[in-house]
Structure formats: C-alpha cells, structure tokens
Design a protein that fits this description.
The chain is mainly beta. The protein has strands spanning 10-16, 22-30, 44-51, 57-63, 68-76, 81-82, 95-97, 118-121, 136-142, 145-151, 163-172, 175-183, 188-192, 199-208, 211-221, 232-239, 243-249, 259-268, 277-278, 282-284, 288-290, 299-308, 317-322. The chain has 3 domains: 10-113, Immunoglobulin-like (Sandwich), CATH 2.60.40; 120-221, Immunoglobulins (Immunoglobulin-like, Sandwich), CATH 2.60.40; 232-322, Immunoglobulins (Immunoglobulin-like), CATH 2.60.40.
Length: 331
C-alpha cells in the first residue's frame, strides 16, 4: 500500500487600503468548506484598519489548497458607508489594492441594505485623565442613532515614553472588531447601531517606541429595546470627609420624559485583605445624590441608572471620586 502527502504551499497576500481616511474592513471565506490548515489566516475571518493620513498594508496568509472569496467595506470619516470597487478585490501578483468608488457613500445605510453595526472614528470629546488611560465605554442615543462609544485619554505626563499610537479592539459575543491601529491624537471610537441587550468590551493599548505595555479594558451592556438612554454629564466629588456628592443630567433625547427615577450605586475594589464592597441601589427622582459614610481617602466608582415608567433600566453611567482624608473609617 502506498500513500502520498500533498505539500500545501502558503501564500501571503498583501492588502493595501486606499488613501481615503476612514475604517476599512476586509473579510475572507474559503469556498466549499475548505480548510487551509495551520500557519494561515484560517478558513474565514475579518480584519479592520483605520486610515488617517497614510494608506495601511496588512497581510492575509492563504494556501493553494483552497479558493477564497474576498469582500470589503468602508466607513469614511464622516460616518458614511461607501462601496469598495469589486474589481479592486481581485488578487493580482499577490496583492489586493482596495479602491473606494467615487460618489458611492451614503449616510442612511450600506449600498446593499440597511446598516448593521457600523464603525466610526469620531472627534475627540474625552475629558481629563483618571486611570492611566481614563478608558470609558458608554451607550448613547442621539438624533442620528444609537452608539456605543469608546474613549480614552493619553497617559499623564511623566508616566513613561511618548505615545506613538493606540491599538483598539472591541468585541461582543460572536464578533470581534479590530484590532484598529489609531494615531496618537485619536481619542474616540464608536460602533453605531449596536445590538440591544448586548455586552461590548473594549481593550485599548497605548503604544510607544518601547512597546505596548500600558492598556485598559472596560465593558458596557446596551439596554434592551425600549429602554431609556443613560444619564449624562455625570460628575462626583468628595463631600466632607467620608461622603461623595454626585450629580448628573437626564438622558439627552426623548426618553428622558419617561424617566420615573434613578438608581445610584457606590463601589470600591478590594483594599489589601479587605474585600471589595458595593452599596445597595439608592433610588432618587432628582439628579443628585450624597453617599452614605464611606472610607476616607478611598476612590469609589459611582454608577447612575435611569429607570422608566415601564421599569426598564438604561445602561449605567459611571464616574469616580475619592473621599477626603482623615476621620474614622467606614465601608
């Protein structure tokens, strides 16, 4: 009995974006359920990159064992969905050069149907730093649709080498967006039209000439359909020695008229051998609250959730504050 083994040859396909600024997403799928084997980019998948000033190149590793179909999508800096010319998806001399079709952009949906989750690099509206990257993830509703918004701040001065850029990955069950390579000036990224009642997690990594060792991870869960939007303009500060005073504004859209009350929670992580702690939810119909007595000199996370008359809750809005120094200890 004789047996023979076919040698599978891997091939690196260089995919190059257009020069138009925005987010490019390339997907691939092996035909007929073919498995290209180890050492390749797999039978299917997708990659996304953000172009700001210069085109980006990335590699797709395939094998001669399978035939592949490529598809691509593009979202420009204004948030409009544009068509990638089908002819530019053909592999020629181990290269694919993506071309955005002129006059193909639409802000109401994709060229082939309504928009699902759309990616957008947004204008920086981030605030001052708190943790090293002040990473925040929130759900927001506005007149032009729902968003989950990732935002962050640069590390504080003196905390290390200069930042050259950021790597951002956003995921939810069943899908990963990114990693996106962003410039040092980028601070804000959004997924428009997110799925309802879904947890999205972001991981942002600050990159420098010495490596990528400063990172932050945080999550947000979008509300079920029909839930109110989250409170906005949340601010908290020490109130006396052992208390925190928090204020906020109602949701920014029409759902604010349906709010019956807000729930406020205070929490802190473990401190040495002292276990973590979270308060019960405090209910209020106003837009401010003062905490119970807490530990002095301790940083607490404060979350505010809006609840409507149908007893549906928003995603929480969060902030942090540190109690004053001195006095007897609390929780």
């Amino acid at each position: 009995m004789f047996s023979c083994t076919r040698t599978v040859t891997s091939q690196v396909i260089t995919i190059r974006t257009d020069t138009v600024a925005g987010v490019y997403t390339v997907s691939w799928q092996a035909r007929h359920g073919c498995d290209p084997g180890t050492g390749t980019s797999g039978a299917s998948g997708s990659m996304s990159w953000t172009v700001v000033d210069e085109p980006v190149e990335f590699a797709l590793v395939v094998s001669d064992l399978c035939e592949f179909d490529l598809s691509a999508a593009f979202l420009n800096a204004a948030g409009a969905v544009c068509r990638i010319a089908p002819s530019s998806l053909r592999i020629s001399d181990a290269e694919v050069n993506l071309v955005v079709e002129p006059n193909s952009c639409t802000s109401t949906g994709t060229p082939d149907g309504p928009t699902d989750e759309a990616l957008a690099l947004e204008v920086d509206e981030s605030a001052d730093g708190g943790n090293p990257l002040n990473a925040r993830f929130e759900f927001a509703t506005s007149t032009d649709g729902d968003r989950v918004i990732a935002s962050w701040s640069p590390p504080s001065s003196g905390s290390g080498p200069s930042i050259t850029g950021y790597s951002l990955t956003i995921s939810r069950p069943g899908r990963i967006f990114g990693p996106f390579r962003l410039s040092a000036s980028d601070r804000r990224f959004a997924i428009r039209n997110p799925r309802a009642d879904t947890t999205y997690t972001m991981r942002v990594v600050a990159e420098s000439a010495l490596g990528s060792d400063l990172e932050a991870t945080t999550s947000v869960t979008t509300p079920p359909a029909g839930s109110p939007s989250s409170p906005r303009n949340v601010s908290a500060a020490a109130h006396g020695v052992r208390q925190i005073r928090v204020t906020w504004s109602p949701p920014p859209d029409s759902t604010s008229a349906t709010i019956s009350h807000y729930l406020v929670r205070y929490s802190r992580p473990a401190i040495g051998d002292i276990p973590p702690w979270q308060s019960r939810p405090y209910s209020t119909t106003g837009t401010s609250h003062t905490s119970p007595n807490l530990r002095f000199g301790t940083t607490y996370t404060v979350s505010i959730t809006a609840v409507n008359h149908d007893n549906r809750a928003s995603s929480p809005s969060t902030t942090q504050a540190t109690t004053g120094a001195g006095g007897s200890q609390g929780r």
